[in-house]
């Protein structure tokens, strides 16, 4: 007989899935500007708007995570898996907070405007400095690749649990009625 799954609260689940969509959008828009389509004003505005959304939701997630501990460690994970899961969660939060701030500072250092959708303009984080801009641009690129790797590893780990182990881990973050598979 199966029992009801212990889940994260609704706010955590909603913000998690909204952030996933925003991160995918930011990564595609950023890669598109650099590798495929070029830096159009529309793509740049989309990337910056989504990046600020990622930053805002990351702050909400971190505060929520500190205030609401969630359902606890997944019982079917071993000690090494728990250590990896915790470390990757901390790394992902750090990247989700740092990457948008680095991008914002990078645009500021270039002397450009950080203009979001709807014409909202954010203040510069730093003064114009081309040497700083170059360092921040490199850092933004490296952190973008790091975020892509960590995000992909997260998706692969969840897919492994859902499709191979079938242990109900994904159910903790889903909506609707789900059941824990028998042990």
Produce the secondary structure layout:
Blueprint: H1 10-36, H2 41-67, H3 79-109, E1 114-115, E2 121-122, H4 130-165
Antiparallel strand pairs: 1-2
Could you characterize what this model shows?
The chain has 183 residues and is mainly alpha-helical. 66% of the residues lie in helices and 2% in strands. The chain contains four helices and two strands. It has a two-stranded antiparallel ribbon. The longest helix is centred in the last third of the chain and has 36 residues, at 130-165. The radius of gyration is 19 Å and the shape is elongated. The mean pLDDT is 90.
Strand content: under 5%
Number of strands: 2
Structure class = mainly alpha
Q: Percentage of helical residues?
A: 55-70%
Index terms:
183 residues; mainly alpha; elongated
Write a concise synopsis of the structure shown.
The protein has 183 residues and is an all-alpha fold. The protein contains four helices and two strands, in the order H-H-H-E-E-H.
């Amino acid at each position: 007989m199966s029992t009801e799954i212990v889940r994260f609260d609704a706010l955590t689940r909603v913000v998690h899935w909204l952030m996933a969509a925003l991160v995918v959008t930011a990564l595609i828009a950023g890669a598109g500007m650099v590798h495929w389509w070029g830096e159009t004003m529309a793509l740049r505005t989309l990337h910056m708007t989504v990046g600020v959304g990622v930053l805002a939701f990351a702050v909400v997630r971190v505060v929520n995570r500190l205030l609401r501990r969630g359902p606890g460690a997944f019982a079917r994970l071993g000690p090494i898996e728990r250590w990896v899961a915790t470390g990757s969660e901390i790394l992902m939060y750090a990247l989700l907070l740092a990457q948008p701030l680095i991008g914002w500072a990078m645009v500021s250092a270039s002397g450009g405007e950080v203009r979001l959708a709807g014409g909202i303009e954010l203040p510069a984080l730093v003064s114009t400095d081309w040497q700083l801009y170059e360092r921040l641009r490199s850092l933004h690129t490296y952190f973008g690749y790091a975020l892509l790797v960590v995000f992909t590893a997260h998706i692969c780990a969840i897919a492994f649990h859902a499709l191979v182990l079938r242990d109900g881990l994904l159910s903790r973050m889903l909506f609707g009625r789900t059941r824990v598979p028998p042990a």
